[in-house]
Design a protein that fits this description.
The chain is α+β, with helices and mostly antiparallel strands and 290 residues long. Helix content is 31%, strand content 20%. It has 2 domains: 36-177, Phosphorylase Kinase, domain 1 (2-Layer Sandwich); 181-289, Transferase(Phosphotransferase), domain 1. Strand 3 and strand 4 (92-100) form a beta hairpin. It is globular.
């Protein structure tokens, strides 16, 4: 992976409000270097851009350049990179770029049980994805990227602790980089919280799961491995498989499994079994959701 490049040679002309055709011509005189690209913000549809109100750190300048900084995590379906979006001599921000694999990777394992109850899937694309053809694998990658984008936006709008979604471009999602003192926040599974923080973490997760259930959704794959510990707060990640609690025939099973995974981890770290009881938590969730 390429390292950050030297500052780009640019003029002092601001391209923020210029016509896109002119900006394209303007850029042609000074292309980004290796490991860089022009910002893709204006290459995507408005619905694929960060929801309002946008934080001040979201950069929308037409002259911004994206620079690859390295890889954070490899996964079975997607890899996560660090990417800096910056304007020469101006603002800069580091984001997480999650890129779903497509035709060159054949280990896309998401189970069809997650997609039951979802609407609007093109029948031709659905058949191709089911067959696992080259086109189908590309479709599957795009579908899961789109599903995660929609889930991120929905959860963010509900006030849930998820990374802020910046943009969706094909099979790539740009989102907030969750960090602690300049380093990527560790996964909950990597932490050893003291009793007070452990209890606080459990309360945060219980509230987050309850909010999701009240709005008819379930994470579907929740565990200590897809939760980040950003200091004293938790951030839930990996949301492509979010399921409809009612519309999906297995929605309740997914909810119970999420409760069991979370409670088992908290019990293993010393939280009282009477508190970290998946059946009690599951019952409380159902009582508040319906």
């Amino acid at each position: 992976m390429s390292s950050p490049q030297e500052p780009l040679r640019t003029t002092s002309v601001s391209t923020e409000r210029l016509d896109p055709a002119f900006v394209f011509e303007f850029r042609a005189y000074d292309e980004p270097g290796p490991g860089q690209r022009w910002s893709t913000w204006y290459d995507v549809e408005p619905l694929c851009r960060a929801p309002e109100p946008r934080p001040d750190w979201v950069i929308t300048h037409r002259a911004a350049v994206d620079t690859e900084l390295g890889i954070l995590k490899t996964g079975k379906e997607a890899d996560v990179f660090l990417l800096e979006r910056a304007v020469d001599g101006g603002p800069a921000v580091v984001m997480a770029a999650k890129r779903y694999r497509s035709t060159d990777h054949r280990n896309f394992h998401r189970n069809s049980a997650y997609t039951e109850g979802r609407r609007g899937r093109d029948s031709r694309e659905a058949r191709a994805a089911a067959k696992g053809s080259s086109f189908g694998r590309l479709v599957a990658a795009g579908q899961w990227a789109g599903a995660e984008w929609d889930s991120l936006k929905r959860c963010w709008a509900l006030g849930l602790p998820v990374p802020y979604p910046v943009q969706l471009d094909g099979t790539e999602i740009l989102m907030e980089w969750v960090q602690v003192d300049g380093d990527t926040a560790p996964r909950l599974a990597q932490t050893r919280p003291d009793p007070d923080l452990l209890a606080s973490y459990f309360d945060q997760l219980r509230e987050a799961i309850a909010t999701m259930a009240q709005h008819g959704i379930v994470h579907g794959d929740l565990s200590a491995y897809n939760i980040l510990a950003a200091g004293e707060r938790l951030v839930i990640i990996d949301l492509p498989q979010v399921v409809d609690l009612v519309g999906n025939p297995q929605g309740m099973d997914f909810l119970l499994r999420d409760c069991a995974n979370i409670c088992a981890w908290f019990r293993s770290k010393g939280l009282a079994p009477a508190v970290a009881d998946e059946h009690a938590l599951f019952g409380d969730l159902l009582a508040t959701a319906f």
